[in-house]
């Protein structure tokens, strides 16, 4: 189930070569067709793979190794450049295949719009999904300058799909007034600025629920993650994001899929952002895959 059977590129550290026995499938969604500021996140998945070689396979936080689980890296979905609607459909079709085969989907973006078709596929398969959204931005617009498929709109579309009461956003520090007004009126759960403290308060309420986790790397302060398309000052530290991932891992929620998006390597020559992302992905793999 690799996209190119002759694929000879990098794979995430400790990935196995057998799709059939995999518990989780890691895949890239190299799309930045709708970004409103700086493109470049389409290069994120491959760079995260390349720098993952510097990671240990063992997590001292979780006392687990990547060899304890079966991870298959499928490579990047070959998305058609500049065509968001076809790209979203291709992502959704692939996720439907993974779910049919009993695999947990784990995506690497790419802009945040790529989360939408994944949640659509998961919701169609399970009909009961809660979203944990960790991000600097609300992503609650109806459109961006007339374009309904935008990296500014996925969470609003997910609210309309699964119900706003099933959407929990953390770390939010940027958005239009209308977006914050929608959050208040709709019944969704939006927590500004912080992640860990409010997350810990709601996780008991999500016990036993099917949860999809999406993390936008720009929830971090630009000092911790300069390599992203839309930086927002006043963010959390990498330690705080690790603690949030571990809090989800220690809870009784049933993580049915996840992604990490918006790593844009062209804006970080030191690879600080991609290196951080690779560690977050290791911790998510070891914490979310039971």
Automatic annotation (TrEMBL):
It catalyses: agmatine + H2O = urea + putrescine. InterPro entries: Agmatinase-rel, Ureohydrolase, Ureohydrolase_dom_sf, Ureohydrolase_Mn_BS. Its EC number is 3.5.3.11. CDD domains: Agmatinase-like_2. Pathway: Amine and polyamine biosynthesis; putrescine biosynthesis via agmatine pathway; putrescine from agmatine: step 1/1. Its cofactor is Mn(2+). One of its GO terms (molecular function) is agmatinase activity. Keywords: Hydrolase, Manganese, Metal-binding, Polyamine biosynthesis, Putrescine biosynthesis, Spermidine biosynthesis. One of its GO terms (biological process) is putrescine biosynthetic process from arginine, via agmatine. It is an enzyme of class 3 (hydrolase). The keyword Hydrolase applies. Mn(2+) binds at residues 112, 135, 137, 139, 216, 218. PROSITE patterns: ARGINASE_1, ARGINASE_2. Binds 2 manganese ions per subunit. Catalyzes the formation of putrescine from agmatine. PANTHER family: ARGINASE/AGMATINASE, GUANIDINO ACID HYDROLASE, MITOCHONDRIAL. Belongs to the arginase family. Agmatinase subfamily. This is Agmatinase. It comes from Halolactibacillus alkaliphilus.
């Amino acid at each position: 189930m690799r996209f190119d059977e002759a694929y000879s590129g990098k794979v995430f550290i400790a990935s196995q070569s057998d799709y059939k026995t995999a518990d989780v499938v890691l895949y890239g969604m190299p799309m930045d067709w709708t970004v409103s500021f700086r493109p470049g996140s389409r290069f994120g998945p491959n760079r995260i793979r390349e720098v993952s070689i510097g990671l240990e396979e063992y997590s001292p936080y979780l006392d687990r190794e990547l060899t304890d689980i079966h991870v298959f890296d499928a490579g990047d979905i070959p998305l058609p450049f500049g065509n968001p609607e076809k790209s979203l459909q291709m992502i959704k079709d692939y996720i439907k295949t993974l779910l049919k085969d009993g695999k947990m989907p784990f995506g690497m973006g790419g802009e945040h719009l790529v989360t939408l078709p994944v949640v659509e596929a998961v919701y169609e398969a399970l009909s009961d999904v809660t979203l944990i959204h960790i991000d600097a931005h609300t992503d609650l617009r109806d459109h961006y300058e007339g374009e309904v498929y935008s990296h500014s709109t996925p969470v609003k579309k997910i609210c309309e799909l699964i119900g706003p009461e099933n959407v929990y956003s953390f770390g939010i520090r940027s958005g239009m007034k209308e977006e914050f007004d929608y959050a208040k009126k709709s019944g969704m759960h939006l927590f500004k600025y912080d992640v860990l403290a409010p997350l810990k308060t709601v996780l008991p309420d999500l016990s036993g629920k099917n949860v999809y986790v999406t993390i936008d790397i720009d929830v971090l302060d630009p000092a911790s993650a300069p390599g992203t398309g839309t930086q927002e000052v006043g963010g959390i530290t990498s330690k705080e994001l690790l603690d949030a991932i571990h809090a989800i891992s220690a809870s009784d929620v049933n993580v049915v899929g996840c992604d990490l998006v918006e790593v844009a390597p062209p804006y970080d020559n030191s690879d600080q952002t991609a290196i951080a992302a690779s560690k977050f992905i290791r911790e998510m793999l070891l914490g979310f895959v039971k």
